[in-house]
Structure formats: C-alpha cells, structure tokens
Amino acid sequence: MADGEDTATLAAGPQPGVKYPLSVLYCGNCSMPIEYCEYYPEYEKCKHWLEKNLPAEFEKMVKLGEGDDGADGGGNDDDKKRQKRGGKGMMKAKKKDDTPKQVTISRAPRGKKKSVTVVTGLSTFDIDLKVAAKCFGTKFACGSSVTGDDEIVIQGDVKDDLFDFIPEKWPEIDEDFIEDLGDLKR
Ligand SMILES: [Zn+2]
C-alpha cells in the first residue's frame, strides 16, 4: 500500500514522462546543483570533482562545453553569444561601403580661353588613378595627371567625351554613377 500513498501525496507534482523520484545532484566542490557549476569561479575544480564522483554527468557537461565552442553550440553562455554578435558587427563595419561609389566630372577654366576637365571618384571603383590618367591622356591626346587623393585633371575640355569613354573603358562604372558637376570656378 505504500506505493498508493506516495501517488496520492504527489498528485499535484508528477508529470508524464518525468522519472521520479527527482534527484538533484549537488556538486561536492561548490555545493551547488551541478548545473550551476559552470557559473562557479572554480568550475575547473568542479569538473575534477564530477569526473571522479559523477562520471556520467561529467561527460554530459564536457559535451555541452564543446558545443559552446563550436559554431552553433548549446548556447546557454550569454557572454559568448554577445561576443559572437559583436564580432559579426565588426565584420560589417569593416566593409568598405562608407564611401559611396560616385564619379564626378567637371570643367574648370584654365587661363582665359582654355579649360581642364576634373575627374574624381575613380578610386571608389578601385581604379588605379595613374593608369586612368594615362588612359585619358592617350585617348584625348592631351596632358592628364593625378592631382589629388582621388582626382585627375585632364588638360582640355573632354567632359562630354568622358561620359562615353569611362563606361566603355570600365564597364563597372555605369553612366548613372557619373555625375556632371558642370563648370567649376577655380
Ligand atoms: Zn561545482
């Protein structure tokens, strides 16, 4: 009859699929239930204790631990999760998307009757400015040189021609990426 009594007493508690009696395993090192051991500063010592006294539980824990180090682990370590998120954020920030891709072409007066054409932004398309300057010089048979961080000055008014030539020479630069700044005053 002892069995019957037990069932009655525990009527509110037992749930299907759960083995009874419930046993909480306490760690001999930190005296906490063993699932809290990992939050204990001396977790390494706890592990040693578990390895000696509760080898089966120890194995489970080690497996969980390995999972956490992997790509998608058990995931009950909040700190590690946060670090991963931060890492991904850093990766995005590193991407070179802060400078919009944009080439500008403008005309600037040079002397009383002549003009020069100023091209900027080619380096936003990873184009070697020296190579580009040489191309322009050859194409338009005039002086062309790198004059700044991302600026080429072509001796002569070739602005209109550049709208055809640049997309032809570098197909990745669609005409839409080229902005006509008009006439600049220098
Ligand atoms: Zn412990």
Automatic annotation (TrEMBL):
Residues 65-110 are annotated as: Disordered. It comes from the Eukaryota. One of its GO terms (biological process) is translation reinitiation. Residues 103-170 form the SUI1 domain. Residues 82-94 have a biased composition (Basic residues). GO terms for molecular function: mRNA binding; translation initiation factor activity. SUPFAM superfamilies: eIF1-like (SSF55159). NCBIfam families: DRP1 (TIGR01159). Belongs to the DENR family. This is Density-regulated protein. It comes from Frankliniella occidentalis.
